[in-house]
């Protein structure tokens, strides 16, 4: 463990340790990806706020587990206007699975993001997805190689950053889809100012996501005003009627 890992919340250290032990797929995947930037543009043209709705059965910061069929939840989210979906595949801390992702991607026609803690090339082969997440803080110096390895397989790549230094590394590596995570992985606390601080430095041609902590229509408007092309929303959509929740956020700029 390097020095910066000492600063991570214990839950996050446990997630990372588990991620390092996880095996990859049996053979190399080749993905015919649905374009995420095009889906974002289409939503925008139709007057909807581009929302990536997340199927997240549980998390270290959520109470309880939602046991509903992920496919049902996914369909409801799309019916509520979601532009894309994010599906947790991390099994031990988020209740996810690669099987959930496979089934969801088969059931909907929007782009689907694989939400996991991928730290090695072989893990990219665990399941097909339209977009795969790489977390700058966790992949460290391997970011350029993993980005390249993911693209060779046909994935689009969402690179998650939390501060200016990580953003610079993402841009340097050639990231085209960038997410600023409002949740600090050291303390697990959410602060929407994180996005506001980092967003002005993101190149204009990147597709920019605000991730985590968007819990109200006001938060959604605030992130959009700060430059978010799309919002990644989990808890606030998973809690209650997912269709109505998704609709509330996708219409945040056209409702009262
Ligand atoms: O539930 P929230 O606060 O709306 O957050 C969603 C998403 O941003 C969060 O689940 C997340 C952001 N980055 C991650 C990395 C791995 C697992 C999960 C995440």
From TrEMBL:
Domain of life: Archaea
EC category name: lyase
GO molecular function, one term: indole-3-glycerol-phosphate synthase activity
Keyword Hydrolase: no
Keyword DNA damage: no
EC number from the UniProt entry: 4.1.1.48
InterPro entries: Aldolase_TIM, Indglycph_syn_Halo_TrpC, Indole-3-glycerol_P_synth, Indole-3-glycerol_P_synth_dom, Indole-3-GlycerolPSynthase_CS, RibuloseP-bd_barrel
Listed GO biological process terms: L-tryptophan biosynthetic process
Pathway the protein acts in: Amino-acid biosynthesis; L-tryptophan biosynthesis; L-tryptophan from chorismate: step 4/5
Ranges in coiled-coil conformation: none
Ranges where the Indole-3-glycerol phosphate synthase domain occurs: 13-247
Recorded catalytic activity of this chain's protein: 1-(2-carboxyphenylamino)-1-deoxy-D-ribulose 5-phosphate + H(+) = (1S,2R)-1-C-(indol-3-yl)glycerol 3-phosphate + CO2 + H2O
This protein's UniProt keywords: Amino-acid biosynthesis, Aromatic amino acid biosynthesis, Decarboxylase, Lyase, Tryptophan biosynthesis
PROSITE patterns: IGPS
CDD domains assigned: IGPS
Family: Belongs to the TrpC family.
The protein's name: Indole-3-glycerol phosphate synthase
Gene: trpC
């Amino acid at each position: 463990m390097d020095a910066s890992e000492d600063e991570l919340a214990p839950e996050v250290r446990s997630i990372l340790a588990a991620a390092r032990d996880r095996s990859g797929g049996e053979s190399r995947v080749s993905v015919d990806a649905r374009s995420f930037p095009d889906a974002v543009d289409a939503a925008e043209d139709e007057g909807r706020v581009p929302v990536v709705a997340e199927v997240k059965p549980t998390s270290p910061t959520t109470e309880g587990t939602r046991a509903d069929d992920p496919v049902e939840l996914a369909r409801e989210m799309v019916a509520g206007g979601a532009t894309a979906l994010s599906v947790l595949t991390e099994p031990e801390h988020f209740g996810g699975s690669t099987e959930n992702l496979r089934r969801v991607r088969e059931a909907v026609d929007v782009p689907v993001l694989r939400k996991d803690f991928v730290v090695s090339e072989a893990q990219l082969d665990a399941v097909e997805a339209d977009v795969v997440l790489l977390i700058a803080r966790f992949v460290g110096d391997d970011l350029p190689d993993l980005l390249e390895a993911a693209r060779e397989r046909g994935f689009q790549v969402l690179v998650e950053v939390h501060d200016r230094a990580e953003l610079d590394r993402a841009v340097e590596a050639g990231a085209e889809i960038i997410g600023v995570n409002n949740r600090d992985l050291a303390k697990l606390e959410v602060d929407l100012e994180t996005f506001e601080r980092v967003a002005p430095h993101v190149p204009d041609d990147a597709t920019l996501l605000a991730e985590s902590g968007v819990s109200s229509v006001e938060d959604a408007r605030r992130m959009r005003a700060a430059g978010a092309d799309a919002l990644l929303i989990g808890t606030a959509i998973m809690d209650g009627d997912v269709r109505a929740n998704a609709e509330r956020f996708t219409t945040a700029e056209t409702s009262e």
